[in-house]
Amino acid sequence: MTLKYIAAGLLMLISFDSSKDLAFEAYTQDIPGTAVSFGMVPIPAGSFRMGSDLDEDSKPIHEVEIDAFWMGTHEVTWDSFEMFLDKNYELAISEGPLGEVVDGLSRPSIPYLDMTFGMGKENKPAIGMTQYGAIQYCYWLYLKTGIFYRLPTEAEWEYAARAGTETKYFYGDDPSQLADYAWIKENSGESTHPIGKKKPNPWGLYDIYGNVLEWTSDQYDPEFYANSPKENPMNPASKLYPRVVRGGSYDSSPEEINSAKRFVSTADWKRIDPQIPKSQWWFPEAPFLGMRLVRPFTPPSEQEILAYYRAKPITDY
Predict the structure, then answer these.
(1) With contact defined as beta carbons under 8 Å apart, do 40 and 295 qualify?
(2) Contact 208, 42 (CB under 8 A)
(3) I want to staple 134 with a disulfide (CB 3.0 to 4.6 A). Which of 70, 212, 262, 291 is the partner?
């Protein structure tokens, strides 16, 4: 594991899966053997009022407590996802052999169509992966770095997006200002854009609105908020559809986006997939869907980590 600290101010020392004391501050994660890296920022523990009165499925507003974690400064880009997707590409840009464990990892089927949909890859968010595919990318990262990365829960995502605010957007309530912070329908040209070109939220998260929708861990249930636990709530996915995605995309209008807005996955995103059963890796009609990483403050046990990564995909007929 290689970490380069990029933020000043020591907050505390904690032990992680590397068995070394690390400061709870922003850092850059290098992917060993390559020139590829990505940024992570600390999200402090705290409580917030989750939900809103703007949408029926975002009610009731309820108090939630969240443990500390790191979150990716940006959405996962093709620069790193391509290495997971294509072992030959990973070999071509790596300084040495992949290692037996990484080499034996199950990888996505190579897409039968251009998964960028003509929008390009350089420094742009990776798109179209299923939730299973997103989790397996995290597994690949774990094998490369020894660090447990995963998808955020729905509550973690909203907490991080709000960054201590209770307004519609983290900057206030005015939708006319959203284009300063997000690639949305009115300014995107119907395309994804390179990460980090818009203003970040107060906790250093770029493109948390717009550009691409972002996976969470949770099953979508319009009634979940009424029965949600107070501490670190999550609704584990037990069926394939629908699951929660957040943040809006380049194809969303300002009226469709806010910190509490819940979007859902749908089988329609696989409509043109010719395979039976349909691919466990790709949504061939979801060019607006991507992912952002989380690293928990306190990592789970090795057994829990492997259970998360090795959960079997649900067959999609």
Answers:
(1) yes
(2) no
(3) 291
Tokens 């992917």 -> residue: 31
CATH 3.40.50.700 assigned to 3-309: no
Residues 6+ apart with CB under 8 A from 260: 50, 51, 52, 54, 55, 58, 158
Helix (H, G, I), strand (E, B) or coil at 296: strand
What CA–CA distance (Å, rounded) separates 17 from 201? 29
Distance of CA 173 to the CA centre of its chain: 25
**Cα(286)–Cα(269) distance, integer angstroms:** 6
Kindly report the pTM of this predicted structure.
Answer: 0.92
Please tell me the distance from the alpha carbon of residue 20 to that of residue 114, in angstroms, as a whole number: 42
Q: Is 205 in contact with 246 (CB distance < 8 Å)?
A: no
What tokens were used for 249?
Answer: 């995309």
pLDDT digit string, tens, across residues 3-62: 333 332 323 333 334 434 568 999 999 999 999 999 999 999 999 999 999 999 999 999
What is the Cα–Cα distance from 203 to 183, expressed in whole angstroms? 19
| Amino acid code (one letter) for 180 | D
Tokens matching residue 176: 């006319």
Determine phi and psi for 256, rounding to 5 degrees. Answer: -90, -10
3-class DSSP string for 62-106:
EEEEECCEEEECCCCEHHHHHHHHCHHHHHHHCCCCCCHHHHCCC
Is the distance from CB of 259 to CB of 53 less than 8 angstroms?
Answer: no
Inter-residue contact 129 to 289 (CB < 8 Å): yes
3-state DSSP call for residue 169?
A: strand
pLDDT in tens, 111-168: 878 899 999 999 999 999 999 999 999 999 999 999 999 999 999 999 999 999 999 9
In sign, the C-alpha dihedral spanning 245, 302, 159, 191 is: negative
Beta sheet of 27-30, edge-to-edge order: 3-5, 27-30, 37-43, 69-72, 294-296
Nearest by Cα to 27 from 149, 123, 114, 143: 149
